[in-house]
């Protein structure tokens, strides 16, 4: 197993030397800039602002290059779809009602997709504090003789139930589903809602893009490519074909991801737990309670990337044995 059992006893313990007792040198460059950004932008101070500001810096310093490239590529493809839909399809369209209605629908979906992506990428997925499995911390948590808990040997953390260690982020994540390079972050307990919304809105604007592009093709063929676009016919064909190809790929991919996430919430079992076929040591929630744990009480806020359900503090690391 990737964790080890630790039992509190009365005998004298040595200082925790997990990970060689080394200082996390990768944080040295990030911490000063993180503090500066926090002081400048976090007035009044709040935990949410504090985390979001610091994770911007930590993401740049600590995440893998593949994740950064995928995140930039995601933004670029959204902007490309915005350009083609707005400049090639909607602005030259002869019917104003069609133009304005689809402009509002598509740009609203794009904005929500972009906001959901940022929230997923810059939110704490449920990271367990690194290196907290020390003698001092164990004493502060008030463990009694005979109490048992898990410790991750990779990041020296007291490991909560259903937490897994991410080899990319180098930390344990509560209810970790998977590490996604497209968001350059893990999908876990705290940001699963935003990831679900990201896949939903990307699938939505992808399907909408296919509808608009096919309709534009039909209009151009009907008018023999006269006044159907501000660009030349060859350029218009290339732009529309690439938009359709992009939209098809992302529609299929995000709908599959959306289905797997909804199934994980429905069964109260993360992707890693399903893959490893772990025996459920936790009390499974009902399907409705499981959705409420991710999205909160049912309201329009379910579809908003700017709200997050209130969660209880995670202070219990104990396990019945």
TrEMBL record:
Enzyme Commission code: 2.3.1.225
Transmembrane regions listed in the UniProt entry: 23-41, 61-85, 97-115, 194-214, 235-258
UniProt xrefs under InterPro entries: Palmitoyltrfase_DHHC, PFA4/ZDH16/20/ERF2-like
Keyword annotations of the record: Acyltransferase, Membrane, Transferase, Transmembrane, Transmembrane helix
A GO CC annotation given for this chain: membrane
GO terms for MF: protein-cysteine S-palmitoyltransferase activity
Residues annotated as domain Palmitoyltransferase DHHC: 152-277
Location relative to the cell: Membrane
Pfam families: DHHC
Keyword Acyltransferase: yes
Domain notes: The DHHC domain is required for palmitoyltransferase activity.
Protein family (similarity comment): Belongs to the DHHC palmitoyltransferase family.
Protein name (record): Palmitoyltransferase
Source organism of this protein record: Anopheles dirus
């Amino acid at each position: 197993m990737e964790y080890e059992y630790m039992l509190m006893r009365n005998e004298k313990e040595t200082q925790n030397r997990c990970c060689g007792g080394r200082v996390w040198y990768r944080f040295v460059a990030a911490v000063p800039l993180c503090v500066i950004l926090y002081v400048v932008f976090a007035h009044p101070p709040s935990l949410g602002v504090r985390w979001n500001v610091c994770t911007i810096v930590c993401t740049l310093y600590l995440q893998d290059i593949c994740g950064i490239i995928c995140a930039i590529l995601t933004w670029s493809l959204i902007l490309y779809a915005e350009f083609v839909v707005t400049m090639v399809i909607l602005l030259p369209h002869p019917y104003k009602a069609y133009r304005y209605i689809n402009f509002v629908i598509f740009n609203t979906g794009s904005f929500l997709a972009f906001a959901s992506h940022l929230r997923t990428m810059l939110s704490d997925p449920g990271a367990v504090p690194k290196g907290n499995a020390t003698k001092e911390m164990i004493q502060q948590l008030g463990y009694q003789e005979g109490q048992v808990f898990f410790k991750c040997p990779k990041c020296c953390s007291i490991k909560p139930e259903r937490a897994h260690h991410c080899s990319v982020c180098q930390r344990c994540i509560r209810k970790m589903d998977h590490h996604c390079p497209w968001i350059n972050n893990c999908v876990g307990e705290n940001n699963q809602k935003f990831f679900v919304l990201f896949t939903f809105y990307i699938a939505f604007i992808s399907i909408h893009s296919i509808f608009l592009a096919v309709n534009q093709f039909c209009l151009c063929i009907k008018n023999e490519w006269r006044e159907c676009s501000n660009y030349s016919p060859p350029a218009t064909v290339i732009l529309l074909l690439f938009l359709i190809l992009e939209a098809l790929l992302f529609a299929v991919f995000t709908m599959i991801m959306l289905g797997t996430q909804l199934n994980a919430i429905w069964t109260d079992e993360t992707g890693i737990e399903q893959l490893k076929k772990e025996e459920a040591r936790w009390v499974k929630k009902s399907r409705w309670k499981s959705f409420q744990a991710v999205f909160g009480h049912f309201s329009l806020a379910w579809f908003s990337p700017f709200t997050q359900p209130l969660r209880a503090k995670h202070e219990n690391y104990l396990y019945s044995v």
